[in-house]
Amino acid sequence: MSSPIFQRILLKLSGEALQGGQGYGIDPEVLQVVASEVQELIELGVETAVVIGGGNIFRGLKASAAGMDRASADYMGMLATVMNAIALQDALERRGVYTRVLSAIEMKEVAEPYIRRRATRHLEKGRVVIFAAGTGNPYFTTDTAAALRAMEVDAQVLLKATRVDGVYDRDPLKYPDAVRFTRLDYNEVQRRDIDVMDSTAISLCKDNGLPIVVFDMLRRGNVRRVVCGEQLGTLVAPTNFKFGES
Q: What is the pLDDT of residue 238?
């Protein structure tokens, strides 16, 4: 088995990925696949943080578009991410993986409050840290939360797990002739408004030189392959960035 080229990573999972083919909620089989992939990282000695969205349970933007107050809708979305985080924590700990959920909204009965130094210490001890409740503020997506937390804990790369094998010039599920990018820089993503992450997240990563790898989470072993240096999916990074030179 190859050795990892990153010592500390942040894995961004969409809530929709957890619903599998159900269309809503959490598919237990998908949850076990995700837990297995994360367990492999811990066995490789990679310090692993995770941010999960909540779109499989509640989408704040969709509710806001339907007439709900945006701030209230976003807070409900944050609570959905906590539910997903607890589900992943349970799946990991059933596998013997030590895990901590840190929430940006205080709820001491189910999660620790988010404190940057505490999060870093958990990672140093080999625990998976799951960041829940986004940034704790409305109007910010979990993409932005992932970029922010990655930089706060000094992650070397942000891995964005999706249901397709990278970033395309248009939706590959609708257009069979869509072209996949193997590499992009932040400026091109912003200039062409390419759908990688939201604009705030891209700006944060650009300003701090944090590389992003977008890849297919549904193929078993892909997380390990990326962490060990195999160039899967699409890399969004500074022009001079090379794998293994974070």
A: 87
**245 located within any domain:** no
SS3 assignment for the chain: CCCCCCCEEEEEECHHHHCCCCCCCCCHHHHHHHHHHHHHHHHCCCEEEEEECCCCCCCHHHHHHCCCCHHHHHHHHHHHHHHHHHHHHHHHHCCCCCEEEEECCCCCCCCEECCHHHHHHHHHCCCEEEEECCCCCCCCCHHHHHHHHHHHCCCCEEEEEECCCCEECCCCCCCCCCCEECEECHHHHHHHCCCCCCHHHHHHHHHHCCCEEEEECCCCCHHHHHHCCCCCCEEECCCCCCCCCC
pLDDT in tens, 143-162: 999 999 999 999 999 999 98
The per-residue pLDDT for range 37-74, each reduced to its tens digit, is: 999 999 999 999 999 999 889 876 677 777 889 999 99
* CATH number of the CATH domain containing 186: 3.40.1160.10
> Residue 241: inside a domain, yes or no?
no
Decide if 142 is inside a domain: yes
Q: Is the pTM of this model over 0.85?
A: yes
The structural domain count of the chain equals 1
Query: Does residue 190 lie within any of the structural domains?
Result: yes
Q: Which domain holds residue 82?
A: 8-236
